[in-house]
């Protein structure tokens, strides 16, 4: 059995001298003489970064509208030749890796007969510690999260063939807590779709009606939990990708407060909205899994405050919630794409919580509608820059960079970019257009406006403990046909995010829970809470869940 050697996270560096490339002499006799007299450090070594040619620099200059002379370009090249020696030094040094603490085999790609809903990308068998909060629990990991030695595709031909050499922090924490990982859950192409039809390995099918969408992008995670193939799963959420599949699969999904759960090692879409969190059968399991994965990651994730506090969320769960104030957000209902039965079911579910002691009333929060516009303004440009052009890591923040994934994505984008989904191609083109023609102005302004929108929600939470609305304002649609038009692909993949994206913008925690079924399909209610107050959010959701199940 293949055993992966545990890597130490400590920053231990070996001493190394700068390596200056040595090129072979033109004469065989000169090469032999050089070889005889050389020390080991002088033996030829290919450079880590090639010195660009003058022609290459001239093309780059034209791209930026720079007026340069041939003499200037040559001098630029001479400067770069000297600077390139530093990259030889960087290349010669070992980098610290995230730890791999538990043995595993590479696993296998499951056959169709054992993958009815196409929810598994890869099957494996990794057992964690013998004891812990998650002992006895089986889990699936979303396939944008690295698991050492297990192939990772992120739903895209761009990354196919990549095998990480490290475990993301969230994976290590699950295994340390006694969790048992059974495989990688299928995702949308590079995780950018709210439906479940863009994964290059085929559509991920709804567990209640297999010809309908299961939601995205953490589609496989939602399906596997709903079907009982695992007890728990990890999803990722930049615009609703934990909550949307959880809604259409009829399970519980929690996007934690931005930064509560470390994103270390995971492929990033935009460092200002990345979140990972639980998808589970019930609220108790969501609270339990959050206890295991939340917390500060030693400065490796810039999304996290250093004074981060993790609570025993399961201890907050009660059936009665007297004095709890719940606001039904008017702006989350009656949208152009809303279905009347969904709105009715969610409002009824919210008002039913008066029976467990909550005070429930409608409230207007105009900033809710702004959230989607801000997400469009900085989400697309940010995702194009970080996930595609930045190869899943981007730059200019202090944290852990998954360098091997960056390398794999860079190669994939150069060779398989035409195999990306139409949604991703549109994101890349739109993001690059905004960057080239507007210089990042709207991204910057939207991020600034986000501050005011976040403060506005914080003021609302002075009067309410939890806000409520439909997670998705309509039921899961049928999966599209093979001949769907490109324009229809954008609608089918992105028309469900109106109520979810505002809380990626503000960073508030948001949980979805099933309120029942209509036409055989689940309807989800989203609860939003104060930042870092998951205890209250989970308490309210647990109380509703127990009341719902009692009244069945």
What does this structure look like?
This protein is of the alpha/beta class. It has 2 domains: 34-92, no CATH class; 112-550, Amidase signature (AS) enzymes (Alpha-Beta Complex). Helices cover 35% and strands 12% of the residues. The chain is built from 15 helices and 11 strands. It has an 11-stranded mixed beta sheet with strand order 1-3-2-4-6-5-10-11-9-7-8, with helices on both faces. β7, α8 (340-352) and β8 form a beta-alpha-beta unit. The protein is globular, with a radius of gyration of 25 Å. It starts with 27 loop residues before the first helix and ends with a helix.
What is the number of helical segments per DSSP (H or I, 4+ residues)?
A: 15
Low-confidence stretches: 1-38
Count of individual beta strands = 11
Gyration radius over CA: 25 Å
Count the domains. Answer: 2
Q: Indicate the proportion of strand residues.
A: 5-15%
Helical residue percent? 25-40%
For this entry, give a set of tags:
Amidase signature (AS) enzymes; disordered N terminus; globular; eleven-stranded mixed β-sheet; 552 residues; alpha/beta
TL;DR?
This protein has 15 helices and 11 strands.
Map the helices and strands.
Layout: H1 28-37, H2 54-63, H3 70-92, E1 120-127, E2 138-142, H4 169-176, E3 180-185, H5 219-226, E4 232-236, H6 243-249, E5 252-255, E6 276-280, H7 283-293, E7 325-329, H8 340-352, E8 359-363, H9 367-389, H10 403-416, H11 422-438, H12 441-460, E9 466-470, H13 486-494, H14 502-506, E10 510-518, E11 521-529, H15 534-550
Helix pairs in contact: 5-6, 7-15, 9-11, 9-12
